[in-house]
Design brief:
The complex is a heterodimer of chains A (233) and B (87). With 233 residues, chain A is mainly alpha-helical. Chain A has one domain. Chain A is built from eight helices and two strands. A two-stranded antiparallel ribbon of chain A has the order 1-2. In chain A, a hairpin with a 2-residue loop joins β1 and β2. In chain A, α4 packs antiparallel against α6 and α6 runs antiparallel to α7. The longest helix of chain A has 36 residues. Chain B is mostly helical and 87 residues long. Chain B has one domain: Up-down Bundle (F1FO ATP Synthase). Helix content of chain B is 90%, strand content 0%. The chains are: A mainly alpha (233), B mainly alpha (87). At the A-B interface, α2, α6 and α7 of A face α2 of B.
């Protein structure tokens, strides 16, 4: 029994082993890119709108509204990052019901890379919004005594983000494998339906948590400013 | 009984106990959080969106500890670092 698609190696190019994780990551990316090209080819501003365009518009509107509610800022700068995370995790989790497809998110390498992207995006968005000095000052809020805990929290929440997604996706795949050996008639399909639900839920949770972290890195100075303005008035 | 089977016994027993306690504790916490959120939605149906989103985030946070236990259980069974040292 393999617990990670990293262990399935198809072939090696020099030192790089082309594992199932790598192959199916490219499959997911190809699905996303081809679907986007096909849908955006027939974009229309007036009805009748195509089905694909309606789906795409609903997705973008959903992610935009979630960003606005979580960060309470203009959603436009965060839309590409958040929607990329959401779509990639969503497609790779949902495609895991296709026989033979190994979800790339069931590998700790993929989820670790995604969490690392979030880890780097927080200071990137913070600095681009607040400037370098003001972003660094948010680490000293409310008191410099908390600095070690803030830094520790940044690292541990990244690890938790990676392991949460990995554990959930991998465990739903593993349970289906075990059930296929124990009770192969109905129960694996039931658990796959559960896995589908949890896959969508965890794509949502990963995106929302990334947005919460980004918002906490960009919003603290705003809060201070509004408090100061409130004090003046 | 050689060292190999001793490691196997301890690993499998610990993996089962870890998953059992970890999932039970996480499930209790998640149940409390979900019950409270449902109560809040019943009292303030207008805020259902915010409450359910916050509840999902909170549930994910709570679930992390259970997932940690599950991963440790898997490591003990499938990727035990002490197997290699003996054989």
């Amino acid at each position: 029994m393999t617990i990670s698609p990293d262990e399935i190696v198809y072939f090696s190019v020099g030192p790089v082993a082309v594992s199932a994780t790598l192959v199916f990551t490219w499959v997911v990316m190809a699905v996303l890119v081809i679907a986007s090209i096909v849908v955006t080819k027939g974009l229309r501003a007036e009805p009748p709108l195509g089905r694909g365009q309606l789906v795409l518009e609903a997705l973008v509107a959903f992610v935009t509204s979630q960003i606005r509610e979580v960060t309470r800022q203009d959603p436009r700068p965060y839309l590409p990052f958040a929607a990329t995370l959401f779509l990639f995790i969503l497609v790779s989790n949902v495609l895991s019901v296709v026989p033979g497809f190994q979800a790339p998110t069931s590998s700790l390498m993929t989820t670790g890379a995604l969490a690392l992207a979030v880890f780097l995006a927080v200071p990137a968005f913070g600095i681009s919004r607040l400037g370098f000095g003001r972003y660094l000052r948010t680490y000293l809020e409310p008191t410099p005594l908390m600095l070690p805990f803030t830094v520790l929290g940044e690292v541990t929440r990244t690890i938790a983000l990676a392991i949460r997604l990995f554990g959930n996706v991998m465990s739903s795949g593993l349970i289906v494998t075990i059930l296929l050996a124990v009770a192969p008639l109905v129960f694996p399909a039931l658990m796959q339906a559960f896995g589908l639900f949890f896959g969508v839920l965890h794509a949502y949770i990963f995106t929302i948590l990334a947005l919460v972290y980004i918002a906490s890195g960009t919003a603290e100075a705003d809060k201070r400013v509004t408090e100061r303005n409130g004090g003046d008035a | 009984m050689n060292d190999m089977s001793l490691v196997a016994i301890v690993s499998i027993f610990t993996a089962g106990i870890t998953t059992a306690i970890g999932s039970a504790a996480a499930a209790l916490g998640e149940g409390r959080a979900a019950a409270q959120a449902l109560q809040s939605i019943a009292q303030q149906p207008d805020e259902a969106n915010t409450i359910s989103r916050t509840m999902f985030i909170g549930l994910a946070m709570v679930e992390t500890s259970g997932i940690y236990c599950f991963v440790i259980g898997l490591i003990l069974i499938f990727a035990n670092p002490f197997w290699a040292g003996i054989s």
